[in-house]
Each structure stands twice: as structure tokens, then as C-alpha cells.
């Protein structure tokens, strides 16, 4: 764009000079002046965080993890010099159509970078095309677009990237934490088989698919025999999970482990277990993912056996860093990963410390 402007100006300077019958020296001088003025106006156009208009689209703001991430991201951006009034946050209300509509609206009113937590991970080609047509770099977060799309960003060299975790790792860590408890300790009925209930996140989610699959694979790889008594979609939500687990427990009261794709569902499962008159951490073991404060407290009480820290603090920082790199026109990779951390009673206090320290610094900033 800038190069084109320079070429157009140079040509027009030349034409003007020729028409005016200038000497060659004069033409050179005039060209140099024009080049200098283009360069300085280009410099003027160099964006700073304070000028950047950022559009942040969250698949559903009632989702605990995404709401934590969104707050953290805004805090980081403001710390980096972005103006809060230039950050537009859109709750996509779990509707792909609505997300597309709002994207068009924000693009037409002017935006310099888009952060998108897509509603439908199989339809991100539409989101990407929209952003690319508008010439706006795009950062996907947390809900990973399909691999074919990531390959396209690479092959077409598109300013598009993804920041998030590898859900396989979360599943594997859940399995490993159960293994660490010792088979003989959790095979309550001593039949040599681990009976479990699986509480899954929403359908068609990579996190749901991989966390479910890899948790069980880790157990099988350790030579454990497992039997699924029931499964259901808790949609990442505490109340839905409580309902799913209540139903499952009515049919299968002798379950040994309840594996949940996230912590809100683990907390919902715990409610159901309590109401069924079972003792969590003794009669039945519950495991989650995310490391939400509420789950960490239950881990410390021995009611939930473990979780994996889905580090929203780090992911928000990576997102801010990537936005700054796009702004400075630096090289940006097409994927930035954040590692999960296994959390049990041993380190729950430390992780709680990280989260609370972050909350305290937020509170201090607000004072
Ligand atoms: C996961 C997270 C869940 C939920 C989900 C939304 O990474 O563990 O709690 O937020 O993303 O897609």
C-alpha cells in the first residue's frame, strides 16, 4: 500500500516537473523532497497501541473460562497502552450467524485487529475470509480452527494465528493424575476394572474430543481396564453437568471415577455426588480441567482429585504480544501454544496463589 503511494507520487512529481520544463537536477531534488515527505507521512501513519482499534469476539460470555480470559486480555492491553474505549468486546451468544453479523458490523465501523474465539470451529474459513478481505490481521483464541484452515494460513501466508493449548495434553494429564492415585485405591469394588462416567463439554469441540479420548487412552496405556458406565454433554456448565451426573448416578451408583472435561462440570458433578449421598474423594473420584478457583478449593478439601491449569493469564499475554507484533509488522507464527499444568492437592495452593495474585493486582489497579 505504502509502496504504491510512493510510486504514484514519484510519477506525478516527474510529470509535473517535465511539464514545467525543469532541469534534471531540479527533478532529482523534487523527487528527493517528495520521497522525504512520503516517508515522513508513512512514519506518521505508524500505529501505536493508543490508536489501535481491537475487536474481541467471545463465543459465549457466560462461559467461565472465556470470561476470565476476556478480563485478563483487556487488562493486559490497557497495560500495554491500548485504550479501553478502542476495545470492542462482542458476546457472540453461541451463534455463528450472530458472530458473523457482528464481525461485519465491527469491520465496517473500522477495526485494526480482530481477536476471535469462534463459535463454530468448522466454519472459521468464513471468519478468516471476512477479515482478510478487510485487510485486518486475525488472532484466534482458545477454540482451535480445523487443521485444513491452519494449513491455508501458512500456504497463503495470511496474517492469521491461533493461541491456545493442546487438548490432548489436558486429557493425558487427567489420565496420569488418576494413575498416580493407584489402581487398587480407586478400583473400589475390586473387580479389576475401573468403572467411570464421562462428562463431556459441548459437542463438536476439539477440547471435548481430545480431552475425552486422551484421558482414557492414558489409562489404557498404563494397562488399566476401564468400563464406561455413562456419558453425557455437560456443555462446560455446572448445572447441566449436575443434571447429567444425577441421571447417570441413579443408574450407576457404584461408579468409581467421574472424568469431567472442565472444572465447572466437575463442581456440578460434585453437587450430584453429594446429593446422592456418596462421599467424593472416598467412594468416588472426580477430576476436572481449567483450575478455576472454586475447583482448586475443592481439591484442597479433598473433594476433587485433580485438574489441569488452563493458563488464561499466559494466553492473554501471548494474545497481547501477538497483537503488538502485528501492529509493528513483525513476523508472527501461525500457532502459539500454552502448556497445561497438572494440579493436585500438592500444588493447588501454588496455582491458587498465581490466580489470586493476579486478582489482587487487578484490584490495586482499580483503586
Ligand atoms: C476450554 C475450557 C472450557 C471452556 C471451553 C470453551 O478450553 O477448558 O472451560 O471454556 O474451552 O470452548
UniProtKB/TrEMBL annotation:
Family annotation (PROSITE patterns): PROKAR_LIPOPROTEIN (PS51257)
Subcellular location: Cell envelope
Pfam families xrefs: Peripla_BP_4
Keyword terms, alphabetized: Signal, Sugar transport, Transport
Protein name as catalogued: Methyl-galactoside transport system substrate-binding protein
Keyword Membrane assigned: no
GO molecular function: carbohydrate binding
A GO CC term attached to the entry: outer membrane-bounded periplasmic space
Gene3D superfamilies, A to Z: 3.40.50.2300
Amino acid at each position: 500500500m505504502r509502496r504504491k503511494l510512493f510510486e504514484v507520487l514519484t510519477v506525478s512529481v516527474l510529470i509535473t516537473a517535465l511539464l514545467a520544463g525543469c532541469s534534471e537536477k531540479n527533478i532529482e531534488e523534487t523527487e528527493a523532497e517528495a520521497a522525504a515527505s512520503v516517508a515522513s507521512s508513512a512514519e506518521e501513519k505508524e500505529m501505536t497501541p493508543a490508536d489501535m482499534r481491537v475487536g474481541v469476539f467471545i463465543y459465549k460470555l457466560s462461559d467461565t473460562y472465556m470470561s476470565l480470559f476476556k478480563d485478563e486480555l483487556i487488562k493486559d492491553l490497557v497495560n500495554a497502552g491500548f485504550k479501553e474505549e478502542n476495545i470492542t468486546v462482542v458476546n457472540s451468544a453461541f451463534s455463528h450467524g450472530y458472530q458473523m453479523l457482528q464481525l461485519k458490523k465491527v469491520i465496517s465501523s473500522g477495526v485494526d485487529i480482530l481477536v476471535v474465539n469462534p463459535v463454530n470451529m468448522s466454519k472459521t474459513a468464513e471468519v478468516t475470509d471476512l477479515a482478510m478481505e478487510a485487510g485486518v490481521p486475525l488472532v484466534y483464541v482458545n477454540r482451535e480452527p480445523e487443521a485444513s484452515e491452519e494449513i491455508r494460513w501458512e500456504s497463503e501466508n495470511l496474517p492469521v494465528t491461533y493461541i491456545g493449548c493442546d487438548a490432548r495434553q489436558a486429557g493425558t494429564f487427567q489420565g496420569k493424575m488418576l494413575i498416580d492415585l493407584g489402581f487398587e485405591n480407586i478400583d473400589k469394588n475390586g473387580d479389576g476394572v475401573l468403572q467411570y462416567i464421562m462428562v463431556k463439554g459441548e459437542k463438536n469441540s476439539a477440547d471435548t474430543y481430545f480431552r475425552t479420548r486422551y484421558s482414557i487412552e492414558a489409562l489404557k496405556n498404563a494397562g488399566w481396564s476401564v468400563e464406561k458406565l455413562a456419558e453425557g454433554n455437560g456443555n462446560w456448565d455446572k448445572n447441566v453437568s449436575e443434571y447429567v451426573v444425577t441421571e447417570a448416578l441413579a443408574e450407576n451408583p457404584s461408579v468409581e471415577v467421574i472424568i469431567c472435561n472442565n472444572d465447572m462440570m466437575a463442581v456440578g458433578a460434585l453437587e450430584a455426588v453429594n446429593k446422592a449421598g456418596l462421599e467424593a474423594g472416598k467412594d468416588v473420584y472426580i477430576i476436572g480441567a481449567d483450575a478455576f478457583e472454586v475447583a482448586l478449593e475443592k481439591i484442597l478439601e479433598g473433594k476433587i482429585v485433580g485438574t489441569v491449569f488452563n493458563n488464561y493469564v499466559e494466553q492473554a499475554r501471548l494474545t497481547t504480544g501477538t497483537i503488538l507484533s502485528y501492529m509493528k509488522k513483525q513476523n508472527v507464527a501461525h500457532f502459539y501454544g500454552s502448556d497445561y499444568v497438572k494440579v493436585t492437592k500438592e500444588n493447588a495452593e501454588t496455582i491458587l496463589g498465581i490466580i489470586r495474585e493476579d486478582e489482587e493486582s487487578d484490584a490495586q489497579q482499580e483503586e
